[in-house]
Design brief:
- One of its GO terms (cellular component) is membrane.
- This protein has about 1000 residues and is α/β, with parallel strands linked by helices.
- It contains 32 helices and 37 strands.
- It is globular and about 85 Å long.
Length: about 1000
């Protein structure tokens, strides 16, 4: 739909552009800079800085409040407007000690400096006065300097209404206003989650990354006892010669710094949100991560890991040379020796025991192109479909449920649809900690636009605390309540019968299958009250648009595929597919777990989800690869869970594992380790000597994403490019280059010299990616699959029907099945597990940042207050958990996040090893282990109590201070405030 245009008159000149745009952005599109400091395109008009005054119809207006409209006439050059802008800037400088040439932030990104320079301020009218506060450097990642703070409120708006962590505020009624954390706590002792939003939007150096201090510029690293006198001298000099020479020097300094600082667009390597940002580096030093408004998935948002947890890139423990095991010990080897050994080992296993004796596990953290090459080597060179990725542990049940019902194994729409929905239902997803940037969008929609939120989870996490309805079902009973709600919709007139008649098959058969799922049965089995079920059904049934979000709390059960199917069924019954603000959204855990599956690291699918059993698809892939179709196996391979079992049973002889911590992440870790020891030959390709790599015969040093080019697919099916920020460390190599060279040593010289060639090959063969090219992904552009040959992508699925033979979806009848493992008299507790905000998986990446451990230095078990009182457990009490497989010992945290006889353990702490307790019982359809179905017994140990496992400074103990944003009206109502261009005697007070 084309945008409405308009023409405005600005300083007598007609300008044509988009209508209803903020005036500042409208002018910027015409290369006109209206001075401003507090305005940010992602935050809107805060009206605090008073530097953007213009005249409209003879009246002074703040330019940030105006929007383009036909006939709008604006003058910026009238004397009153110019004087008002200069007065506004003078007031800012009265609050900010301007010493740009020795300031770490004078890198071209300082809004205040750039605005001062563009306005050509002749002299600082108001003398800078120090504020009665010390610089706060208590936080692990950034500092706050009140003497530099101009009280613009950008940080507050970002924290309150973009991140919606609601930690920061400004009290303009204080005698000396400042930014406050939880109303007056230090950064370290507050509810701050270190997302970095505040630092990203700060227009000066009041909030600054510690990685930028002190060596961001040629003069910034000098000791404070030298820097301070220099500042004082320059400030006194300024009073005699005026500001322009000093500003000129700072401009020179800014331009001196520019060539040294490299800014590279990349995509985050942690969760599946797909945050894109610039990474600022000087040589190998990562100065900072800087999000931009144009980033398609996240805008200016980040989380603690994406913003700050990059120390792993330069870790001294990075692998930089290939390793070969000799006599039980690793030694360094050349690439020639290592690759020759790998090629011979894999071919020997194939030729001696058959193609299916070799298994490949591709990486959910590597690129799409690298996933494509992994499955190409497996299928074309070895001849097996036994290739998989970590989606087997998390994503596959959701994918199966979507394939059964609507046809595509991915999110139905975009993050924007989650924002648009009238109701969002979150099931089994700790979104605020596992996908924090998406959680922020939902929190903002609820806070600012009244979106309704339903959360269903056995654990009361942040999203549950914020929910309009919070349901706490018994573990593994989600299929029951979801099916009961579907039945309720039919019985109470909320089923979208028109949609069902036109777009859905098996409606009647499905409706009949709901007969057992009465509200009474649901109440009995789930523990959710009848009234709560009715309230939930009414909220969903009366809504015009519903999105349903789920994650591993649903998929990691013995019937996770069925539960996922039940959730998708509910959406179909209510007509919540194919229109904005609707659909199913299984949150992807790793940064490229979606892409690893999309590009063929699946036991039954070629890239683009074409079945290996489909003769036509097999023939097309064989032709494209230059072989007869008989050379490609039509037998469904084994996934990683089955590969490990087959290795233990001596059916799989060789395995190639890329960037996956299988020894840590797979269920029943004792059996996994035994299986790896049974292998004749094992290759691990990784950045670190991981727990998995310890079992290898050859270890190949791969690279993180910042040391190569490629593409990722995020949870919303969005394909984005990332770029090489710095060269590979030591003699490590990009995974695509390693795989290309390995293929050549096995007789297949594909000759790829850049990942773009790999993507081009895949796009020529797989219809789903037909229009994907690197050119179409330049800059901040992205594409959401499926992508037509002309480059048209699909942000919202199912608008023109479903990808089935008749274009219809399917309601899939289900039966309730008891979970494979439940509590009994001996193992009387159920153990839940999951991720935390601070860490990621086995901490091979996040754990290399010391400041991350500052928040959560220990592993622990969460125990409910009820159970703690019953068993005599206190904070830090050591307990032993014993499952039907093994025991682990850990200290307790007492919290109402868990309830009754349900426990929770974070998965990240390797020494504790949660997977010593989990079992091999799994979903029979997709072979995902039932990690969430672990029955345990608990024994209190007679041991000195541990220090509080969650330190007192952990953000979970903070007290948020929700506000509507920046209370600029309070500032205006103060007696001292006068509107520019009138002068204000003590500007630092406001």
């Amino acid at each position: 739909m084309s945008k409405v245009t308009c023409t405005i008159i600005y300083d007598g000149q007609p300008l044509t552009g988009a209508a209803d745009e903020p005036l500042i952005d409208f002018l910027d599109a015409h290369d006109i800079d209206l001075p401003h400091v507090c305005y940010h395109p992602s935050l809107g008009p805060l009206q605090t800085c008073d530097t953007c005054w213009v005249e409209v119809d003879g009246e002074l207006k703040r330019g940030c409040t105006l929007r383009s409209a036909d006939g709008l006439t604006v003058s910026s050059q009238e004397q009153r407007a110019r004087a008002a802008r200069e007065e506004g800037m003078d007031r800012l400088l009265g609050k900010h000690e301007l010493y740009c040439s020795v300031c770490e932030h004078n890198t071209g990104d300082c809004t205040l400096h750039n605005t001062v320079a563009s306005m050509d301020i002749p002299i600082q009218r108001y003398k800078f006065r120090r504020k009665p506060y010390e610089k706060d450097d208590s936080g692990p990642f950034y500092t706050y300097d009140p003497d530099q703070c101009i009280l613009c409120g950008r940080c507050v708006e970002a924290c309150q209404n973009v991140e919606v962590n609601e930690t920061l505020s400004i009290d303009y009624s204080m005698e000396n206003p400042r930014v406050l954390w939880d109303g007056g706590m230090s950064i370290n002792d507050s509810s701050c989650v270190d997302c970095g939003h505040c630092v990203t939007v700060c227009p000066c150096n009041a909030l600054l990354e510690k990685t930028m201090q002190p060596d961001a510029g040629p003069f910034t690293a000098m000791p404070q006892d030298l820097k301070r006198p220099m500042i004082e001298i320059v400030k006194r000099l300024e009073e005699t010669i005026g500001a322009p020479p000093i500003t000129g020097l700072s401009n020179m300094d800014m331009y001196w710094r520019q060539p040294e600082i490299k800014r590279t667009k990349t995509v985050c390597t942690y969760c599946g949100v797909g945050c894109a940002f610039e990474m600022w580096t000087r040589d190998r030093h990562i100065l900072k991560v800087q999000p931009v408004a144009a980033a398609p998935a996240n805008g200016i948002s980040t989380c603690v890991k994406g913003k700050f947890a990059w120390d792993f890139v330069n870790s001294e423990k990075r692998l930089t040379m290939p390793l070969i095991r000799d006599n039980g010990r690793f030694r360094e080897a050349s690439w020639d020796e290592a690759l020759d050994k790998v090629a011979k080992g894999l071919l020997h296993a194939r030729d001696t025991y058959g193609a299916d004796s070799v298994g490949f596990i591709g990486s959910s953290k590597a690129s799409n192109e690298e996933a494509y090459l992994t499955q190409k080597i497996a299928r074309l060179i070895i001849g097996t479909n036994s290739v998989d990725n970590s989606s087997r542990y998390c994503q596959n049940p959701a994918t199966k449920g979507l394939f059964r019902t609507v046809g595509y194994g991915g999110d139905a729409g975009s993050i924007e649809d989650l924002e648009k929905a009238e109701v969002v239902v979150i099931v089994g997803s700790n979104t605020a900690e596992n996908h924090p940037v998406i959680a922020s969008r939902i929190k903002a929609a609820k806070k600012r636009r009244g979106q309704k939120l339903i959360v269903v989870d056995p654990r009361k996490h942040e999203m549950a605390e914020r929910a309009d309805i919070f349901l706490r079902p018994n573990i593994s009973t989600d299929l029951i309540w979801a099916s009961a709600l579907s039945r309720y919709m039919f019985e109470h007139g909320y089923a979208d019968l028109t949609f069902l008649d036109q777009h859905v098959n098996q409606v009647e058969a499905y409706r009949q299958s709901l007969e057992p799922f009465t509200l009474a049965f649901a109440e009995e089995k789930t523990g959710i009250s009848r009234q709560a079920l009715i309230d939930t059904a009414e909220m969903i049934g009366t809504a015009q648009s519903v999105c349903l979000v789920w994650a591993m709390g649903i998929t990691q059960h013995s019937h996770g595929a069925d539960i996922s199917t039940a959730l998708s069924n509910l959406l179909l019954v209510t007509g919540n597919y194919g229109k904005p603000g609707t659909g199913g959204y299984p949150m992807r855990g790793h940064n490229n777990v979606q892409g690893a599956s999309d590009f063929g690291c699946l036991r039954n699918m070629y890239p683009g989800y074409e079945k290996v059993t489909d003769d036509d698809a097999r023939a097309r892939w064989a032709k494209a690869w230059g072989v007869d179709k008989e050379q490609l196996s039509d037998k469904i391979g084994e996934g990683n869970f089955l590969m490990v079992q087959s290795a233990q049973q001596d059916r799989i002889k060789a395995m190639y594992v890329i960037g996956e911590e299988t020894a840590f992440a797979d269920a029943d870790s004792h059996n996994v380790h035994t299986a790896f020891e049974e292998l004749d030959f094992m290759v691990v390709q990784d950045m670190f000597l991981s727990r998995t790599a310890e079992f290898a015969d050859v270890v190949l040093p791969g690279c993180p994403s910042v040391e190569k080019d490629g593409t990722f697919v995020n949870t919303e099916r969005r394909i984005q490019r990332f770029h090489e920020v710095m060269a590979p460390l030591g003699d490590s190599r990009p995974d695509w280059a390693i795989l290309t060279e390995l293929a050549a040593r096995m007789g297949h010289d594909w000759g790829y010299t850049h990942p773009s060639q790999i993507m081009a090959e895949c796009a020529r063969i797989a219809p789903m990616f037909a229009g994907v090219t690197y050119e179409r992904l330049e800059g901040w552009k992205s594409l959401q699959w499926p992508v037509a040959a002309d480059g048209t992508d699909t942000p919202l699925l199912y608008t023109d029907g479903f990808p089935t033979e008749d274009g219809k979806a399917t309601l899939f009848p289900l039966e309730w099945k008891e979970p494979d493992e439940e509590a009994d008299d001996e193992y009387d507790l159920m153990l839940d597990n999951g991720r935390m905000l601070e860490h990621f998986q086995g901490t091979n990446q996040s754990g290399r940042t010391a400041e991350i451990w500052h928040q959560t230095p220990y592993g622990f078990i969460e125990v409910s207050p009820q159970l703690a009182a019953e068993r005599g457990i206190e904070e830090g009490t050591w307990v032993r958990l014993t499952s039907r497989r093994d025991s682990v010992e850990m200290p307790a945290v007492i919290t109402d996040r868990v309830d009754g006889k349900t426990l929770f353990v974070p998965i990240h702490h390797g020494k504790i090893g949660i997977n010593a307790l989990t079992g091999e019982h799994h979903d029979p359809d997709v072979h995902t282990p039932a990690y969430k179905e672990t029955a345990v017994k608990l024994e209190v140990l007679d041991r000195e109590r541990h220090a509080p496992p969650l330190p007192a400074h952990n953000f979970r103990f903070g007290r948020r201070t929700p506000t509507d944003g920046v209370p600029v009206e309070v500032k205006w109502m103060r007696q001292e405030y006068v509107e520019p261009p009138a002068h204000q005697p003590r500007p630092e007070k406001l």
